[in-house]
Amino acid sequence: MGARFGEIGGDGPAPMACLEALWQRHVVSTKGNHDAAIAGTIGLENFNSYAVEAARGATQQVSSEAIKYLAGRPERLVGDSFLLIHGSQNDPL
């Protein structure tokens, strides 16, 4: 089992293909700010113009199942000796 720490669907040209590949591999992941933007759980006001364009484009390409998946990703995963986050401990997104 692998891990990916945020930005599953928001930074590349094929977000749905990326998500499907991760689902097939049962990858454990956390939510990044682009993932949250695609899912509609955060706004785009703090994104630069390129990131806004990427998030909007990705939102149009992904399925409703993908949006639910991204919305449901945890912001942090904590184990006995590790913390997995996309951003920082104080602001994981």
Task: Describe this protein with a few key phrases.
single chain; 93 residues; alpha+beta; two-stranded parallel sheet; 4 helices; disordered N terminus
Describe this structure as you would to a colleague.
By secondary structure, the chain is of the alpha+beta class. It has one domain. The protein contains four helices and four strands, in the order βαβαααββ. The chain has helices at 15-24, 33-39, 49-61, 64-72, and strands at 3-5, 28-30, 76-78, 83-85. A two-stranded parallel sheet has the order 1-2. A hairpin with a 4-residue loop joins strand 3 (76-78) and strand 4 (83-85). The longest helix has 13 residues, at 49-61. The chain is globular and about 40 Å long. The two termini are 23 Å apart. The model is unreliable at 1-5 (pLDDT under 50).
Largest sheet: 2 strands, parallel
* Uncertain parts: 1-5
Which descriptor suits the 3D outline?
globular
Strand content: 5-15%
- Could you tell me how far the N terminus lies from the C terminus, measured between alpha carbons in angstroms? 23 Å
> Helical amount among residues, as a percent range?
40-55%
Strand order of the largest sheet: 1-2
Computed over alpha carbons, the radius of gyration is: 13 Å
The DSSP helix count reads: 4
In total, the number of domains comes to 1
Give the overall average pLDDT. 86
- Using DSSP, what is the number of strands? 4
Helix-strand pattern: EHEHHHEE
Structural class: alpha+beta
